[in-house]
Prior knowledge:
This protein is an alpha/beta fold. Helices cover 40% and strands 13% of the residues.
Amino acid sequence: MSKQPKVSTRGAIPPFFVMEVMRAAAEREAAGLEVLHMEVGQPSTGAPKGVLEAAHRALDTDVLGYTGALGIPALRAAIARWYQDRYKVAVPERRVVVTTGSSGAFQLGFLAAFDPGDRVAMASPSYPAYRHTLTAIGVEPVELPTGPEHRFQPTIALLEQLDKPIQGLIVASPANPTGTMLSREELTEIAAWCDANGVRLVSDEIYHGLTYGPEAVTAAEVSETALVVNSFSKYFSMTGWRLGWMVVPDDLIRSVECLAQNLFISAPTLSQAAAVAAFDCTAELDGHVARYARNRQILLEELPKAGFDKLAPADGAFYVYADVSAMTDDSEAFCKRILAETGIACTPGIDFDPARGHHFVRFSFAGSEATIAEAARRLIAWKK
Length: 384
Ligand SMILES: Cc1ncc(COP(=O)(O)O)c(C=O)c1O
C-alpha cells in the first residue's frame, strides 16, 4: 500500500483573482468575442526602442551566462546614477541589487529582514502578493484597514493602535490598487516612526514615474535602514523581462547576496544587459505616461456618469479604485457580469482587501486611449 506524501501548508495561499479574470477574458476572446482589458496591471506597450536595440546587441555579442548574484556592474551603476539624476540622492552602487522583478526582490528582502513568526504591517487594500509571500515564509501579515479618510495609506495613528509589536511595515506610493501617494512629510514621519520602534520599512516604489501631480519621494532619501524596492515592469514598460532592483540597507547586503546566490543565482542576463539602456529612454517612456494621464482624465470624468462616483484619488500608477457598495455586495460576481454584458474586464477588490473588497472594483487605465474611451462609453450605456 502506498502512502500519500505530504503537501506543505505554506503553499496554501489564496490565488490571484485578477489572473482568474484574465482567464475568463481569454475564454471570451477564444470564443471570438471582444474584450476591453482593464484588469491587467501592465503597460500595453513593449520595452523602449533603446532597450530592444541593446538586447539585440547582447544576443549577437554576449554568451549570456550567469552574472554575479547582485547584478552586472554596468546596471548597478546605471541604477545608482538614476537615484542621483532623478531624486538627487546619493546611493552607493554596493547597495544596489538587481533582482528578478520586484517579486524576486520581495522574496529576497523579506527572507533577509524577517524571521518566521514576525509580524509585518501594510495598508489594506494593497497588492496581494505582500500578504501571500509573507504567509508562505511564515511571517504574519498585519493589515491596517484604511479608507478614503486615510487616503488608503498607513498612518502613525493606525500604527500606534496595533495591539502587538510589528517587525516590518510595507508602504507603496503610488499604491496598487488605489493610486494614492504619501507626501514627503508623511513618508519621513513613517520612516522616523519605524526607526524609533525598530521596525524595518519596506518601500515598494514600482509605480514611481507614473504620477499625475507631485512626483513620488523615495524612501532612500529619508531612511538609511529602509529596504527600497523598484522594477523595470511599470514605468520602463518591461514586465516580461522580469527585472527589478532593491536599494538594500548596509546591514542586509550580505544576507541578500547569499540568499540571491542560492535562490536565483542571478537575474536574467539578457534583460540586465538590455536594461542598462532603459535610463536613456525617458522621452519614449514619458510619452506613455502622457497617455496614462489622458486615460486617467477620461475615467475620472466619465466613470461618475456610469454610477462609479466614489473613486480613490488616482495620484499615480494606472488604476482607479471604485467603491461600488451602492451597486453590489459581491464584487466578483459584479465583475463577471460587467465582462459578460459589456466585454470590459476589470478586477474585483477582494484581491486587495479580502474583508472589504466585496464593495470595490479596480479599473486599470494602462491600455490605449481608444480602449479606455470605449470602455467609459459602454459603462455609461450599461448603467442606463
Ligand atoms: C504594487 C506592486 N508591487 C509589485 C508588483 C510586482 O511586479 P514585478 O514583479 O513585475 O516587478 C506589482 C505588479 O503588479 C505591483 O502592483
